[in-house]
Design brief:
By secondary structure, the protein is mainly β. Helix content is 12%, strand content 34%. It has 1 helix and 7 strands. A 7-stranded antiparallel sheet has the order 1-2-3-5-6-7-4, covered by helices on one side. It is globular. The C terminus is likely disordered.
Length: 161
């Protein structure tokens, strides 16, 4: 895929997450697509996502991978809860430039009693930007906020909070 073939728009079906989600706001605007038990998150790379070389910063890619892995594990677990990441591994394969659409996909997910495991990728069209794998912990207590919905990689505050 050449630079002129890169995807630069938000594909149909993705919905923008609201602001006020803590560290996740560093990725704003960020979009989510939940279909059944599958989760994807995406961004259009902005100047604030880039390093001094004009490429999407690895920290932005890691945050995108982390949110996607946690959401994928939560969906597989079937319980909406805050699930802290205990391990995240990422391999950077290709660079992404400002203005490109990136989407992270939870591809292989396994949920056990206390831990969830997820691997996936970050893509621009058919071009692979990064591959990731993560492990999240499912706490015994209810670590979610009231009103959370399936697919909330980050739990949203409600009027009752």
């Amino acid at each position: 895929m050449t630079d002129k073939d890169s995807i630069t728009h938000v594909p149909a079906g993705f919905q923008r997450l609201p602001e006020g989600l803590g560290f996740t706001d560093n990725l704003q605007p960020i979009y989510r697509l939940v279909e059944g038990d599958g989760a994807s998150f995406g961004i259009i790379v902005g100047a604030h996502h880039c390093n001094t070389m004009g490429m999407c910063h690895g920290g932005a890619l890691m945050t995108l991978a982390d949110i996607t892995a946690a959401t994928g594990a939560n969906l597989a677990h079937g319980v909406i809860t805050g699930s802290p990441t205990v391990h995240l591994n990422i391999d950077f394969i290709s660079g992404a430039r400002q203005g490109e659409w990136l989407h992270a996909v939870a591809e292989q997910v396994t949920a056990k009693r206390r831990f969830g495991f997820c691997s996936g990728g970050i893509y621009n069209g058919e071009r692979t930007i990064a591959r990731f794998s993560g492990t999240v912990y499912f706490p015994e207590h209810d670590a979610r906020r009231a009103g959370a919905e399936a697919g909330d990689g980050v739990i949203l505050p409600t009027e009752n909070d």
